Hints:
By secondary structure, this protein is mainly alpha-helical. The chain has helices spanning about 40-65, 80-100, 110-130, 150-175, 180-205, 215-225, 235-255, 270-300, and strands at about 5-10, 15-20, 20-25, 35, 100-105, 210, 260. It has a 3-stranded antiparallel sheet, with no helix packed on it. Strands 4-5 form a two-stranded antiparallel sheet. It has a two-stranded antiparallel sheet with strand order 6-7.
Amino acid sequence: MFNDNFLTFNRNDNIAxxxxxxxxxxxKKSFEYKNINxxxxxxxxxxxxxxYTITYLWSEVLQSSPLISQGDHYKNTVISxxxxxxxxxxxxxxxxKYSNLHLREDLxxxxxxxxxxxxxxxxxxxxxxxxxxxxxxxxxxIPGFWNELDTKAKLTIIFLGLTTTILIMNEIMESxxxxxxxxxxxxxxxxxxxxxxxxxLLSSYNAKxxxxxxxxxxxxxxxxxxxVNWENIIELIMHGVLMGIMIEGIxxxxxxxxxxxxxxxxxxxxxxNSVVVAGFASFIGILFISILDLIYTYFEKIY
Length: 303
């Protein structure tokens, strides 16, 4: 009784069902995958924290190996190693939360996280080994650093800089297409605000000879904000590489890698000055809280 019934699929994803002399055409329902907020999903955040922990431990293997000169990293003791791992997990968790990463539901697979983990580990290990290359071993991003570099170092920086810039421009174009460019700009401005606040506090406490020193952990963490569209496998890999570089930096040089502004002044903080700074900060903070509360009440609140 089933000989006269058959099922066929045409090129337009329609379903044709024929029974005897009757033909019924059914339109296949369109199906869209949901975008999952990684930072709001405990399971996925747990996966990423495990990946960052594994990356840190392999970076520690490299740091402890004969491949790395003793002068190219801080002394790695048991205490520093364990607590730097704690800092890495806290910082990575905060950075992923801040980035507000999303991933399409159908892409949440073991293979994707496997690729991401390999990218993180390679980013940490390769960047650590690059520090042993003679013309890159003493590279520091400080004012006037370019004039101190030899030709090989300049060519290396130009190549890496152009490659990263091209990828960032591609991300910006993709973000404009999917209307997420404003989100990336907002994330970058957040970093600017935080480090501007750090500079203001240093100035308020009368720090002298403040100078900029861009550590690679800071630089790479900022660049991760330009690669938040994980539906593009290249951007996912770049994000992993940059997170690996950040992890390697803190593993090799400690939490001080997040210090953008350095100063020679290590004097004590004056009590009166600290009261003035705290009072002014409280006034500005309360003012901003009031403004943000009004914005939420009249523009963002869902009734």
